[in-house]
Specification:
The structure holds two protein chains of two kinds.
Chain A (H helix, E strand, L loop, with lengths): L3 E4 L2 E4 L5 E7 L6 E7 L6 E7 L5 E2 L8 E7 L2 E6 L8 E8 L7 E2 L3 E5 L1
Parallel strand pairs in A: 2-11
Antiparallel strand pairs in A: 1-3, 3-8, 4-5, 4-9, 5-6, 7-8, 9-10, 9-11
Chain B lengths: L3 E3 L4 E4 L4 E7 L6 E7 L5 E7 L4 E3 L2 E6 L4 E6 L8 E8 L5 E3 L3 E6 L1
Parallel strand pairs in B: 2-11
Antiparallel strand pairs in B: 1-3, 3-8, 4-5, 4-9, 6-7, 7-8, 9-10, 9-11
Classes of the chains: A mainly beta, B mainly beta.
Chain lengths: ~120, ~110
């Protein structure tokens, strides 16, 4: 079945550091990738939607200058949390989809802890 | 009001029991409905889609009531491995998935 690889799975770093998370579709072309965030005991919240070769569409309340998304190829999207602070500590999950009528396939997630 | 509401649980049931989860959604324009399963600190995995006519997959039965904006999941003959959080997910016409906070199930021997 379709596989989405997310890396790294765990990041612990100091406040002020920028962190890059990669999301790769391994056996299909992901025309659309989604980035979610999940705080403890809360639901997954969509942060942004990105289509290959175009700018990401951010959900209300998500700062595009803080969460930089690049979807330069059909198999790779990156999320960079710039100047991360403790309140950015969360579980970040990407998902990918090839065609609009296909389900999203989720990556393993990245647990980000900012000290 | 949340767009997708679920009872957070936990539901603690013995092996072999039948358990049902409910979910309500607020946007009547929602078009697709799913149940996902999420194990602790892992990514969500699609359990099943939910159709208006109701659908069954082995021990799992999902139903949708569009008039009441209500979705259910029934698990029969619970196994220890069913212990997880079950997420009710609604897809709107923009292809955006809206997740509920999940209902936690714990099956004990």
């Amino acid at each position: 079945g379709a596989v989405v690889s997310q890396h790294p799975s765990r990041v612990i770093c100091k406040s002020g550091t920028s962190v890059k998370i990669e999301c790769r579709s391994l056996d299909f072309q992901a025309t659309t990738m989604f980035w979610y965030r999940q705080f403890p005991k809360q639901s997954l919240m969509l942060m942004a939607t990105s289509n290959e070769g175009s700018k990401a569409t951010y959900e209300q309340g998500v700062e595009k200058d803080k969460f930089l998304i690049n979807h330069a190829s059909l198999t790779l999207s990156t999320l960079t949390v710039t100047s991360a602070h403790p309140e950015d500590s969360s579980f970040y999950i990407c998902s990918a989809r090839d065609l609009t009528d296909q389900p999203q396939h989720f990556g393993d997630g990245t647990r980000l802890s900012i000290l | 009001r949340k767009e997708v509401e679920q009872d957070p649980g936990p539901f603690n049931v013995p092996e072999g029991a039948t358990v049902a989860f409910n979910c309500t959604y607020s946007n009547s324009a929602s078009q697709s409905f799913f149940w996902y399963r999420q194990d602790c600190r892992k990514e969500p995995k699609l359990l099943m889609s939910v159709y208006s006519s109701g659908n069954e997959d082995g021990r799992f039965t999902a139903q949708l009531n569009r008039a009441s904006q209500y979705i259910s999941l029934l698990i029969r003959d619970s196994k220890l491995s069913d212990s997880a959080t079950y997420l009710c997910v609604v897809c709107q016409n923009t292809d955006k998935l809206i997740f509920g906070t999940g209902t936690r199930l714990q099956v004990f021997p």
